[in-house]
Automatic annotation (TrEMBL):
EC number(s) from the headed UniProt entry: 3.1.13.1
Keywords carried by this UniProt record: Cytoplasm, Exonuclease, Hydrolase, Nuclease, RNA-binding
Name by which UniProt lists this protein: Ribonuclease R
Organism: Shinella oryzae
Enzyme class: hydrolase
Keyword Hydrolase: yes
Bias type Basic residues, positions: 758-769
Domain S1 motif: start-end pairs: 665-746
Origin superkingdom: Bacteria
Subcellular location field: Cytoplasm
Annotated segments matching region Disordered: 1-30, 754-783
């Protein structure tokens, strides 16, 4: 499991107000008095909307005379190409927000920050961009308007400085309309027809509902509410505006997360009509590959199949011992065209969201499970890449093709692996020698290249929840990590690399999957921690993934192996989407773009369109409007990805809390997964569930927090707990709707190492005093 990299040379600089000595976003030198290159000019307009008039642009770059005439012509060409549009006296990118806008604050992000969107937005302009609301600060903070969830505000708009979140930040100028707070809860009937709303999150509070505002809700229903009154005394009062269904129903737990995180889950009628009207793809601009025995290898319960693979020896005398690997991906770009209803809805969702009991798809089933799914024995359109590898695992070349294919077999990971391991069945037996063994030989060769590249190799097992028919938890288990999984993963990675390489060679803008190197601050925190285990980590700004692999190797098969894996994971940056390529630190790749899952990720659909357009492969290519909006699109889909991760995690937490709610007072084996000033996070390996042990429940001693050692240790006894310690805990409280577990510590603390004990004598470090406040959950990430 890896996160995903940032420019090794640091942030790029951009033209400032003077513009005299400032290089461009890509470090292209600016010559004062000379019209800048097209990309530099577009970047300046995007980053400086307040200076986007012709006069201000000329001033910023010091343009006079003939240079101003040239600038005017260039800006006019941008308008004709659809890269810019004129609003009053300013030029903006299509779909860009003006310097001041009216926003509706609609939700919060995973960190609790307010998110707003334009109050007015045309449907054909795509999804309305998100704006991270910054409450005004500084010396006049007490006089600044304070906005809240549901408010309509007038805000000053700024391009976001940080990648991976909303494309804009906004500072509230004025609150135009204080709207009713809304939310969700569980309805409980009370005597007299009144009701009470129980909260579904950890920080919520109960609310009363008068009989006339219950909207027919029954006891145990999950409901949407508006808060109508908050007084100085008594509980807040609410009215129910919608009944979602019984909280005891099979899919109520995931519905809580869907509503709480604002995930679109109902397709509009126009989207369904467009999907149902779609028909089979034509052979126009396609090669006929139906005789090539491509196969799909997926989870046994997969309903959509967006990738198929094939491998064969390379017969070229120039590549002895080499192999040809073919990866074919569902041609979603043929069906989902820019600015169509399907496209607008797909961008609004950003990605499919996977819960233990359901999937919220990015595209309707007619597209995802039918027309684009590479079904066995059925003609299906695909975008394919054919890659040539030497016997040393080096990629010698690749080509892209738009094809019509027919899958020769649909296999599960376990089915394919069993055949290779000597237990073929009726389906895998006939294709073992001709299809499966060549695939495994290609994987063996590709592994040579992977080992040479040394991507980050974290050992963080992924747990899976198996549900009963009624939607409750049956068991939690760690699926075995098979070579079949690794084979598909490596072939997909190489296909993604090929896509990025081709588009760069064509000078085609695209959305990269990037993963920054760990920040120097995070490196130092990890370095201090590792020193307590006598493990060293190199210093300097040229950190590579193999440096972390060396650390993980030293910790392997030691009592602190899991602890080191967790700390290395926490040190990593978050992988995001960006039109600016900074490489992928975790995979140790300099060119990487998501290409292999367009059914479930909008980023991949953008890459498909870019390939179709730049290679002249027919209809469905990327448009100038899309190219101009890639910054915003990348920011949006990065935000939606984090939204999906948070919703998936919350659902798992709630399911496990429901599962364990009947076992209060029981003891469990756990492992310390987080250490804070307020207490310990403890994970139950058997269930993959996290719970909290408040510092007050650790014992009678005065416990002191040592960040470097990730420990809480008693001031008098010297006994304490460190990250990774195996402990015994008792379940004291479970709040299923909030997904919260609280434990009491049963295990006695162990004697802290000398370094930790000497820490007490030398005085507490800044911020070491314990405080009774909640900590934060250890971060998680995705490749």
């Amino acid at each position: 499991m890896t996160r995903e990299p940032r420019s090794r040379s640091g942030q790029s600089r951009r033209p400032g107000r003077a513009g005299r000595d400032a290089p461009a976003a890509d470090d292209t030198p600016i010559i004062h008095g000379v019209v800048p290159p097209r990309d530099v000019l577009l970047r300046f307009i995007a980053d400086h909307p307040e200076q986007a008039s012709k006069r201000e642009i000329a001033k910023a770059f010091g343009l006079k005379g003939e240079a101003r005439v040239e600038l005017k012509a260039l800006l006019k060409s941008f308008e004709e190409d659809g890269l810019l549009e004129k609003r009053r006296k300013s030029l903006v990118r299509p779909g860009a927000l003006p310097p001041v806008a009216v926003l509706d604050i609609t939700t919060r992000d995973v960190d609790g920050e307010l998110i707003g969107r334009p109050a007015e937005w045309l449907d054909d302009a795509g999804v309305a961009p998100a704006v991270l609301i910054r409450q005004s600060g500084g010396p006049r903070k007490d006089k600044a308007p304070v906005a809240g969830l549901g408010d309509r505000v007038l805000a000053k708009i700024f391009p976001a400085k940080e990648r991976g979140g909303p494309a804009y930040t906004g500072r509230v100028i004025k609150v135009l309309d204080k709207k009713k707070n809304s939310g969700m809860g569980v309805f409980r009937s009370m005597p007299g027809g009144n009701g009470r709303i129980l909260p579904i999150d950890r920080r919520g509070e109960e609310m009363d509902v008068d009989a006339e505002f219950t909207a027919g809700a029954k006891d145990g229903d999950l409901v949407e509410i508006d808060v109508v009154r908050i007084g100085r005394f008594g509980l807040p009062r609410a009215q129910i505006k919608g009944v979602i269904g019984s909280v005891a129903s099979e899919k109520a737990i995931s519905m809580i997360a869907i509503h709480a995180h604002g995930i679109p889950y109902i397709f509009p009628d126009a989207v369904i009509r467009e999907a149902e009207a779609a028909g089979p793809a034509s052979m126009s601009h396609r090669e006929d590959w139906r005789s090539l025995p491509l196969i799909t290898i997926d989870p046994a319960d997969a309903k959509d199949h967006d990738d198929a693979v094939h491998a064969e020896p390379d017969t070229s005398p120039d590549n002895p011992g080499g192999v040809i690997v073919t990866v074919a991906i569902a041609d979603v770009s043929y069906y989902v065209r820019p600015k169509s209803a399907l496209d607008r809805e797909a961008l609004k969702r950003g990605n499919s969201v996977y819960f233990p009991d359901r999937v919220v798809p990015m595209l309707p089933e007619r597209i995802s499970n039918d027309l684009c799914s590479l079904k066995e024995g059925v003609d299906r359109p695909a975008l394919a890449v054919r890659m040539v590898f030497s016997k040393e695992g080096r990629k010698a070349g690749h080509t892209f093709h738009r094809v019509m294919m027919k899958s020769a077999a649909k296999l599960s990971y376990q089915q394919a692996q069993a055949a290779i391991d000597g237990a073929p069945d009726d389906k895998t037996g006939p294709i073992l020698e001709t299809i499966l063994k060549p695939l495994w030989e290609a994987y063996r060769i590709m592994t040579i290249g992977r080992n040479r590249r040394q991507p980050l190799e974290l050992d963080m097992p992924e747990r899976k929840i198996l549900l009963k028919p009624d939607g409750t938890v049956d068991r939690v288990f760690v699926p075995p990590r098979l070579d079949a999984h690794k084979l598909i993963e490596e072939m997909m990675i190489q296909a993604n690399v090929s896509a990025a390489e081709t588009l760069e060679k064509k000078k085609q803008v695209l959305v990269y999957r990037v993963h920054d190197a760990p920040s120097l601050a995070k490196q130092e925190t990890l370095r201090e921690f590792l020193q307590t285990l006598d493990i060293s980590l190199v210093k300097g700004g040229n950190m590579r993934s193999n440096h972390f692999n060396g650390v993980l190797a030293k910790a392997k098969d030691t009592p602190f192996e899991q602890m080191v894996n967790q700390m290395v994971l926490r040190s990593q940056s978050q992988a995001i989407y960006s039109p600016e390529n900074i490489g992928h630190f975790g995979l140790n790749l300099m060119k990487y773009a998501h290409f292999t899952s367009p059914i479930r990720r909008y980023a991949d659909l953008i890459v498909h369109r870019a390939l179709v357009g730049s290679l002249g492969l027919g209809e469905g290519g990327i448009t100038p409007d899309e190219e101009a909006a890639l910054d915003d699109i990348a920011a949006e889909i990065s935000t939606f990805e984090r939204r999906a991760m948070a919703a998936e995690r919350d659902t798992v937490d709630r399911l496990i809390a429901h599962h364990l709610a009947a076992r209060l007072g029981e003891e469990f084996d756990g492992r310390v997964s987080g250490v804070t000033k307020a207490g310990l996070f403890v994970t139950l390996p058997e269930y993959g569930a996290d719970g909290f042990v408040p510092i007050s429940m650790l014992g009678q001693d005065y416990f002191i927090y040592d960040e470097a050692h990730q420990a809480l240790s008693g001031e008098k006894t010297g006994l304490g707990y460190r990250l990774g310690d195996e402990v015994r805990v008792k379940l004291a409280e479970a709040v299923p709707l909030a997904g919260a577990l609280r434990f009491d510590m049963v295990s006695e603390g162990r004697k802290m190492p000398t370094a930790v004990r000497s820490f007490h004598k030398s005085g507490r470090r800044k911020g070491s005093a314990p405080r009774r406040q909640p900590g934060t959950r250890p971060p998680r990430g995705r490749r």
